[in-house]
């Protein structure tokens, strides 16, 4: 079981998505930014750390939204999903990932990482 934190980042009715870079599993799929939760770290702490490491932003306010579990053929992921309410800095792909701001219609056209499809359904409900 992989335990991870995921952030939904809105800006002017658009959501930030990241494309998994070449060399990583599921390369070319799009996902909500975030990453694995380390030992002795809360989901919120992990999200704040991961968004700084991956995007270069300093999260200043975040709200827990829901939890989601997805089973891949070789592993299961348990995701803690957060809404990022405010942050400092401009997101940029620090790990060679492409970032893209998309509206809800564009979001459904992306090749979404299978483990993020359930999150996508919930995000549409939040609209």
Describe the structure.
The protein is globular and about 35 Å long. It is built from 3 helices and 7 strands, in the order E-E-E-E-H-E-E-E-H-H. The chain starts with a strand and ends with a helix. The protein has 127 residues and is α+β, with helices and mostly antiparallel strands. It has a single domain, classed as Nucleoside Triphosphate Pyrophosphohydrolase (Alpha-Beta Complex), CATH 3.90.79.10. The mean pLDDT is 93. Strands 1, 2, 3, 4, 5, 6 and 7 form a 7-stranded mixed sheet that branches.
Question: How many strands?
Answer: 7
| Percent of residues in helices | 10-25%
Q: From the alpha carbons, calculate the radius of gyration and give it in angstroms.
A: 13 Å
Low-pLDDT runs: none
Number of domains: 1
Given the C-alpha coordinates, what overall shape results?
globular
What is the overall number of helices?
3
